Please model this.
Amino acid sequence: MRTFVFAPPAVPAVPVDGTSDLFPVRRVYCIGRNYAAHAVEMGHDPDKEPPFFFQKNPDNLNTSGTFPYPPKSDDVHHEIELAVALKSGGRNIPVNKALDHLFGYAVSLDMTRRDLQGNAKKMGRPWEIGKAFEQSAPITPIVPAADCGHLSEGKIQLTVNGDLRQEGDLNQMIWKVPEMISYLSEYFELSPGDVIQTGTPAGVGPVVRGDKLVGSVEGLPTLEVTVI
Model:
């Protein structure tokens, strides 16, 4: 009988809102520059780009209500996002069937070591050092779509210490949720437990220790995070 050489880590999971259930996380996909104004503020033309994705690690999802400022960076930025969680998957999912695979929605942050990401871009290297670090994706409990409906419009915003930093509407996403699911399924076999962060509106900026971040998406619980 074969055994593990050491005890395997616990399965990363996110609470399901209003229940004692947990949503087990398999992978975390993140779409880049999915709001036109954010693409412009990052120096890109949103009309010329097909969608592109990078990944965070499943255990980067963070439900603690705190965000530990990471090492090796002096320029960590907030990016407020809608996250979607899948209950099923497959390959080559048609756009008109994509929402059939969706379990629910959450509010999330894609915290970014912007200086390290910028250096990686200049050198043509992957972004993981700037994106996929410990506790870099604070997230609320997941609200089942059966409870909140499918979210295609509604205000998304972030305040820092009470000051509005980011504001937009879900209907401003260049690639909508069904299109993201369909596109990803052409390149990866999607599965239950996959989470997709759907991009951030304009207004990203730095945080410092002690900052209090409050993120919201209309129709979902509020995300409150303190930088420590």
In short: The chain has a mean pLDDT of 95.
